[in-house]
Design goal:
Elements: H1 11-23, H2 28-40, H3 64-75
Helix pairs in contact: 1-2
């Protein structure tokens, strides 16, 4: 694993980071890793069919791609 050293970190920022780590019951290093992971990870794209409670049943036998093409064609 890599090691990261941060120079010139403002004291106020470091105190906030430590407080946040305590709130999440993590070490400061673990909190930094979690923050970086949250910011840098790409969220998985959601499919309309995977969403709950938003009409999933209505799309069960419909090809979403074909539906979009029909909708676009209707506007031409």
């Amino acid at each position: 694993m890599a090691t990261l050293n941060v120079k010139n970190l403002p004291d106020k920022l470091y105190r906030k980071l430590c407080a946040r780590a305590r709130r999440h019951r993590r070490s400061t290093a673990q909190e930094i890793i979690q923050i970086l992971n949250d910011v840098l990870e790409e969220p998985e794209p959601l499919s309309l069919l995977d969403l709950r409670g938003l009409g999933k049943e209505a799309w069960r036998d419909i090809d979403a791609g074909e539906h979009v093409e029909r909708e676009r064609a209707a506007w031409d």
